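thought: user wants a sequence for this fold. calling inverse folding tool.
action: design(structure=
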C-alpha cells in the first residue's frame, strides 16, 4: 500500500531471519520506507545482516547501542545516507548475562545485571538522546521499542529482563513527554507475544512460555510478521496521535484470565 512512502529511519537489532527487527525491515521496505540497518559489531561477524541489506537496499552501519560515540556516528552516517532527517526508529535490542548464564533471579550477579540493563533499557535513552541532540527527527516521526509483559506480571524465568523491560517502558513514557512537547515526535513500546528468536530461545523454559501464552490468548500468539505489520502501522501517519503507550500485541493474552484449553488441564474428574 506504500504507507511508508518517503519515510526514512534506522532499524536496530536484525540478527538473523528470525529477528523481529528483520521482519520489520522487510515489511517497512515493502511499504516504501528507506532506512539504515544497525547492530552491535559482534553480531555483524555472523554476516547475515548483509543479505537483508541487499534485499532492502539499505546500508549497514555497525554500532554498539550502549556507546554514545557509536550512536553519534550512526546518526550522522544515516542522515547522510538517507539525505536528511529521520521519520522512524526501531529499538529491537535485548540481552541479559544473568539469563544467558542461567543465574536465578534471587542470586543475581550485579555486574551482569548492570550490563544487561545498559544494553536492554538504557540504550533506548541513549538512542533518543542522540536523536534529540542532533535534532535528527522530523515532526510527526515515530520512535518505537519492543517490550514484553514481564514488565507488569511475574514470569520467573524471564529473570532480570523483567526489570529491564519495566525500565525500558518507563524511559519511553518519560522521554516521550519531551519528544512530544518539543519535537512533535511520538514514543511507544510494543509488548509482543513470545516469539521464537535467538533472544527468546535463550530464556529457560521458553517453549512453555510460548505454549501457555498461545493456549490463553483468544487469538493465539502474535507472529513475528504480525508484529512487523503493527510496527509499520506505528511508523505510518495513521497513528500520529498515539504516544507514551505500551501497546500489547499479544492476541489478547494480557487481558485474559483463563481459557478453556488451560482450564481443561486442571479439571478434576473425581469431583
Ligand atoms: N522473542 C520474544 O519472545 C520477544 C517478545 C517480546 C519482546 N521481545 C523483544 O524484541 C526485541 C528483539 O529481540 P528478538 O526476539 O528479535 O531477538 P534477537 O536476538 O533476534 O534480537 C536481539 C538483538 O539485540 C542485539 N543487541 C544485543 N546487544 C546489543 C548492543 N550492545 N548493541 C546493539 N544491539 C545489540 C542483538 O545483536 C540482536 O540483534 C528485544 O528487545 C526483545 O526483548 C522479544
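)
observation: tool returned 271 residues.
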Amino acid at each position: 500500500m506504500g504507507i511508508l512512502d518517503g519515510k526514512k529511519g534506522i532499524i536496530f537489532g536484525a540478527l538473523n531471519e528470525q529477528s523481529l527487527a528483520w521482519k520489520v525491515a522487510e515489511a517497512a521496505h515493502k511499504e516504501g520506507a528507506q532506512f539504515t540497518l544497525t547492530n552491535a559489531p559482534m553480531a555483524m561477524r555472523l554476516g547475515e545482516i548483509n543479505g537483508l541489506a541487499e534485499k532492502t537496499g539499505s546500508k549497514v552501519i555497525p554500532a554498539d547501542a550502549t556507546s554514545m560515540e557509536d550512536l553519534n556516528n550512526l546518526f550522522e552516517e544515516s542522515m547522510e545516507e538517507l539525505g536528511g532527517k529521520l521519520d522512524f526508529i526501531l529499538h529491537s535490542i535485548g540481552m541479559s548475562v544473568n539469563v544467558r548464564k542461567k543465574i536465578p533471579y534471587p542470586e543475581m550477579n550485579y555486574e551482569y545485571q548492570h550490563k544487561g540493563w545498559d544494553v536492554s533499557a538504557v540504550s533506548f535513552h541513549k538512542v533518543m538522546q542522540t536523536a534529540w541532540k542532533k535534532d535528527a527527527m522530523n515532526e510527526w516521526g515515530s520512535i518505537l521499542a519492543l517490550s514484553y509483559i514481564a514488565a507488569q506480571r511475574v514470569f520467573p524465568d524471564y529473570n532480570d529482563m523483567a526489570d529491564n523491560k519495566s525500565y525500558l517502558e518507563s524511559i519511553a513514557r518519560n522521554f516521550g513527554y519531551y519528544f512530544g512537547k518539543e519535537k512533535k515526535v511520538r514514543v511507544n513500546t510494543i509488548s509482543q507475544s513470545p516469539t521464537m528468536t535467538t533472544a527468546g530461545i535463550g530464556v529457560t523454559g521458553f517453549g512453555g512460555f510460548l505454549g501457555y501464552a498461545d493456549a490463553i490468548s483468544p487469538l493465539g500468539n502474535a507472529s513475528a510478521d504480525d508484529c512487523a505489520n503493527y510496527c509499520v502501522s506505528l511508523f505510518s501517519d495513521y497513528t500520529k496521535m498515539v504516544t507514551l503507550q505500551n501497546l500489547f500485541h499479544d492476541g489478547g493474552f494480557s487481558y485474559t484470565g483463563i481459557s478453556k484449553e488451560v482450564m481443561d488441564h486442571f479439571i478434576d474428574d473425581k469431583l
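thought: summarizing for user.
answer: Here is the designed sequence. The chain has a mean pLDDT of 96.
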